[in-house]
From TrEMBL:
InterPro entries: cNMP-bd_dom (IPR000595), cNMP-bd_dom_sf (IPR018490), HTH_CRP (IPR012318), RmlC-like_jellyroll (IPR014710), WH-like_DNA-bd_sf (IPR036388), WH_DNA-bd_sf (IPR036390). This is Transcriptional regulator. Transmembrane segments: none annotated. The keyword NADP does not apply. It comes from Citrobacter amalonaticus Y19. The keyword DNA-binding applies. Residues 138-212 form the HTH crp-type domain. GO terms for biological process: regulation of DNA-templated transcription. Residues 12-80 form the Cyclic nucleotide-binding domain. It comes from the Bacteria. GO terms for molecular function: DNA binding.
Length: 223
């Protein structure tokens, strides 16, 4: 399971910030989004392409009182508003929006943008398959370990404590990512700490004692 903290390693803002693309950049509408603001959702009748300039957005599904996080969008990530997913700002954010029809015209004129989008969409598709596989075939403990390992591999630094990484998500946030309840997620997280697999070393800072050993155990759980 990917951490979902980034949709893709590719960053569309890097391309749009190049001088030769400033005229394209200026066609986008710049919008500030406050923390907790609903950016898009089913029934809002907006058909735009959005690119995150700064901050962080959460893409999720909602059925009644239940929610499931699909992705977190960060600077350079791109998404569409005409899906069945909800998009919400989880931090103070700035997004760039453009009507889908106009964006399609840009892709025909500048195929290099389309090539980068293809890479991003490929990463999103891979992440979607990871989600489906983990929910169908693996239990909550396996999904939690996979999530923690992905954080360690994506943003971890090797120290005397093991592989240290930062995570400012709450237990509620993590439970929405792995598809479990907050109580179950918290209980499983505490067991991993008690068993010495991970340790809390500060506010929003954790360490995986032996990332190789934990990865081997994860592979055994999935076998």
């Amino acid at each position: 399971m990917r951490s979902k903290m980034r949709v893709s390693a590719l960053n569309l803002m890097d391309l749009l910030n190049q001088p030769s693309y400033h005229h394209i950049f200026r066609q986008f509408h710049n919008k500030k989004c406050h923390k907790g603001e609903r950016v898009s959702g089913p029934g809002m009748r907006n058909d735009n392409i959005l690119i995150v300039s700064s901050g962080q957005l959460r893409v999720f599904l909602s059925y009644g009182e239940r929610e499931f996080t699909l992705y977190y969008l960060e600077s350079g990530d791109i998404f569409s508003t005409h899906t069945r997913a909800y998009i919400e700002a989880v931090k103070e954010s700035v997004i760039l929006t453009l009507p889908t029809k106009i964006f399609h015209q840009l892709l025909m004129t500048y195929p290099e943008i389309g090539m980068q989008m293809t890479g991003i969409l490929g990463d999103m598709l891979g992440s979607s398959w990871d989600i489906i596989e983990s929910i169908i075939f693996h239990d909550a403990k396996t999904r939690l370990i996979a999530f923690i390992l992905s954080l360690g591999k994506e943003r971890g630094m090797v120290t005397e404590n093991g592989t240290e990484f930062e995570c400012d998500l709450t237990m509620e946030d993590i439970s929405l990512i792995i598809g479990s309840t907050r109580q179950t997620t918290s209980s499983l997280f505490n067991v991993l700490i008690k068993d010495g697999d991970i340790m809390r070393i500060g506010k929003n800072k954790y360490a995986i004692g032996d990332i190789t050993a934990l990865s081997i155990r994860l592979a055994e759980y999935k076998a």
